[in-house]
Amino acid sequence: MKCRRCEKPAAIKMPRHNSAFCDLCFRDYLHKQVMKAISDQRMFEDGQPILVAVSGGKDSLVLWDILIKRGYPTVGLHLNLGIGEYSRISQAHVEKFARSRDLELIVQSYQDDYGLGVVDIAKETARPPCSACGTMKRHHFNRIAMEKGFAVVATGHNLDDEAARLLGNLLNWQIPYLKKQMPVLSDEGGKWARKVKPLYRLPEREIAAYAVLNQIDYIIEECPMSKGAKTFLYKEMLNRLEENSPGSKLQFYLGFLKERPSAFPQQIEAETQRCASCGQPCGGDLCGYCRLIQRVGAS
Ligand SMILES: [Zn+2]
Ligand SMILES: [Zn+2]
Prior knowledge:
Low-confidence stretches: none
Shape: globular
Strand order of the largest sheet: 5-4-3-6-8-7
Mean pLDDT: 90
Number of domains: 1
Structural class: alpha/beta
Number of strands: 10
CATH superfamily: HUPs
Bound molecules: zinc ion
Helix content: 40-55%
């Protein structure tokens, strides 16, 4: 098979485009998809410093790689969740990536902050680990961005993540969660860092291929705490659909973005309340994070 652009031998098949690319044309294609996401959704301006949340997995490291190559000023942020060997290896991958490219990296460890990892915090508060983890991540991304003066936090959420979450939210009619599904989460008039997902147009498979072709070393294992999570089932179902009719995943998610304002108009307004303890946006008196930490302290 030959590259559809330059006729050189193809390195990756692209079923959803009914074609294939060589490694250079594939790299070019992937960068263009990210640049299109950034400009379509007005994620950030040229020259605006970006805090990139890097877990050590392929998505966030590929995102960081692309942002650097496109000339954006970035600083990495890694949260060590305190999940034993998994967290140790994740952090090592992030540090190696930053060191080899001479990039600035902030590392924050839950163990250092609370003497507890996310697993212990979940146990102490009787919350499912993934839910406690999500709450803590959101809080720290916001806090560190504000402390260090970043207006934008970029995360590595890809098309598979967003489509699987959308499917889950719709299957369970979790309408209030749909507003977290946008590629840009509001900064509420500059009060908070804007959260952006520049990889939302790209499927996992293409991101993994980019990582391999660009020698990006990442942690391949999924988080041990996420075993049995429904997300994996939804991803598998969407992959079967994609195999049968290439392009379905992107159509599903882009369709949601297009139809959302008229289909779910009540979802437009942002959380207007402020947490009484930390001041971050929330739906009640105390935000989920502060309630969690209060319970850890009380137990
Ligand atoms: Zn080519
Ligand atoms: Zn709070």
